[in-house]
Amino acid sequence: MRFERLRIQGLRCLTDVSVELAEGIHVFVGPNGAGKTSVLEAAYLLSHGRSFRSGAREALLQRGSASLAVFAEASGPGGIGRRLGLGREGQRWEARLDGEDVPLGLLVRACAVVCFEPGSHALIAGAAEERRRFLDWGVFHVEHGFLEAWRRYQRALKQRNALLRTGAPGPDALYAPWERELGDMATAIDSYRRDYLDRLVPELATSAGSLLPELGVMALRYRRGWNEDSDLASVLADQRGRDLARGHTTAGPHRADWSLAFEHAPQREHLSRGQEKLTALSCLLAQAGLHATCRGEWPVVCLDDLASELDLAHQAAVVERLAQVGAQVLVTGTECPQPLLARPHRMFHVEQGQIRPLL
Fold first, then answer.
1. How many domains, the chain?
2. What CATH number is associated with residue 144?
3. What's the pLDDT tens digit per position in 233-252?
4. What is the pLDDT of residues 73-82, one digit of tens each?
5. Which residues are annotated as a binding site for ATP?
6. pLDDT for the residue 55
7. Closest CA to 250 of 260, 238, 262, 259
């Protein structure tokens, strides 16, 4: 997929800007606070329905504005055109696809963007929620049954948690239907996730081997969120008393996690901050590569403040990889990253919320 045109209204300091995009690499340069990252954030919103910046939900709106909107014209395999839109009025989000109002999930399925940014190391060093989001975004784009299973699981989880918050044990008949539903959907979700990870591991081994050869052989560990030897419905019934005391469900795929271990860094704590960033980047490139294998097209790749996040050798390696596969790339920086100077690219200057093409 690639964007042909991106229009942004009321997002942070971007009042109303439009940028024409093409194939290949695009570089957005300008001073700090000019709005460069917000361009990438707009693209990411269309693909994820949220920002990649932590705690950004309320800060997305431009000061004094009651709404924001992001529109894009994009093309997919075979040059098929799509019109994408996401708007927010107060707390309400609205998605549009080819001129029709659609559920957010349909918009996200039609638009694939991955982003490497200063907070990306949280994928490795942060909470399990970050890793589940990464995993489920990838599964969602290649397994069409995943979304329905996840929605049914979340609905049943909400009902069981509401019962638990009453603090009263209640008859088994109240809990058993929801626990059966949770068990059935958990089995489906776990199967989708395992299949996806099985396909991701070879891509990940390749990207990690290229960016972090000094760490040796890589292994991925996956924990599904409940005892491997039991079905979830039985587990939930057995630990209902403990869950009542805590007021929420403590086992299930919403508690799943995964981690990477290397031959010469078997624990996450053995990685330096720079190695955490490179490991996260390896994961993102692997996910993008698998997406291309499954969907026939690379996602748009955003690299925020590339020159500050990676040394020259790793900048060059990433640029070479993305240039080889022909991905559309959006890069930001206070100046053009050195490895891009000798490569074809389009450059834009961003300042005071305005975007001006340079070349």
1. 2
2. 1.20.1050.90
3. 999 999 999 999 999 999 99
4. 998 777 788 9
5. 30-37
6. 62
7. 238
